[in-house]
């Protein structure tokens, strides 16, 4: 009892944006004898984090599934794919919109709260958000469980075996093979790994993560993945065709419909540039904790870039990572491949990272170039000035890294 109170008190004292629910969950989890040791040994009491934490910070359709897989393959990394999805769902009404009563600040607070608890390997914290509500700490509704090797292999799933690492990217295999997910087991498995990595496309800017970076209970490093906004747009048009109907009409006719919504790509660009600027200015709080990665560099030269990524997080690159790269990026072809996870069942349907240049009308490209001019300039993406230049793949739009 004494120990549990100390731990709770410590948390309160440290109180860096911890919310009441966090403490309540912690107290609940202290009820289980198995967690006493973890929570009450010296390392916890001195708050020195024993694990390292990685955030793959990206935007929708910027190659983050692919990049996440580079982390997911490593046996020392406990990787989670978009756990914040559940928070967003919890605050979304039936028409898929964030509830008006909830402002951006509150949603970000809930996101950070979940991230902190997941980094501390408390997967029970997800239960506040998963629908339907898990009973007895097990669930069938963990978003994209198959994308997390750790959740589909022993000890969480005895059937998973090591094959899980190289299994085809097909969503249902893990639930079929492993059955229901036991969140207690998952939390325990998380504690045995040296690194906890989370991918998210739901946090707008790097500065929104400052409290987590400065939290003494975490040792957080941020991999900021960016991609050419013209490519992001083309990819979103393909993946979310309903939402992008007006854009598709524009693309097909070459004429901009009056009702086309330019705000989404504009804010994507604004967020990208704000975060990259914040990171590149090297503020003290991000010292050694921020890495900017262009998806194009990764797609063109996956082994080299994966090495850089692993250097940054302080781990050796494992064979399993190498093998995955060989199997999933066709390093034999001169053109890089886009790893189209969600919307393809076979590897053959992957598109090249540059294929957008052949499938996007010049009129749209020109508009995005104007909306995102600063972003292109800062991140080293060249503008094109004609359809011929756009379609000429020998003319690279990616400036060398400086
Ligand atoms: C959902 O929320 C949006 C924005 O707050 C609102 O316009 C819409 O009417 C809501 N829809 C339903 C079905 O509640
Ligand atoms: C989940 O795993 C824990 C720890 O191994 C175990 O005690 C518990 O009984 C499991 N829950 C269910 C519903 O199987
Ligand atoms: C690449 O080429 C080598 C030699 O031609 C071949 O052995 C290997 O299987 C190829 N890899 C892929 C992924 O096609
Ligand atoms: C744009 O239109 C062309 C045909 O004009 C089509 O081939 C291409 O797939 C379209 N691109 C997108 C992203 O919808
Ligand atoms: C876009 O940015 C570049 C480099 O900063 C600048 O030279 C150019 O004039 C800008 N163009 C437009 C249309 O804003
Ligand atoms: C395509 O780009 C390359 C490299 O900039 C250039 O040498 C070539 O002339 C271009 N081809 C056409 C048809 O414009």
UniProtKB/TrEMBL annotation:
Protein name per UniProt: Sulfotransferase
GO biological process: N-acetylglucosamine metabolic process; sulfur compound metabolic process
Highest taxon of the lineage: Eukaryota
GO MF entries: N-acetylglucosamine 6-O-sulfotransferase activity
Domain Sulfotransferase: 52-378
Enzyme class: transferase
Pfam family, one: Sulfotransfer_1
Stored InterPro entries: Gal/GlcNAc/GalNAc_ST, P-loop_NTPase, Sulfotransferase_dom
UniProt record similarity statement: Belongs to the sulfotransferase 1 family.
EC number from the UniProt entry: 2.8.2.-
UniProtKB keywords: Signal, Transferase
Signal sequence region: 1-23
Species per Swiss-Prot/TrEMBL record: Hippocampus comes
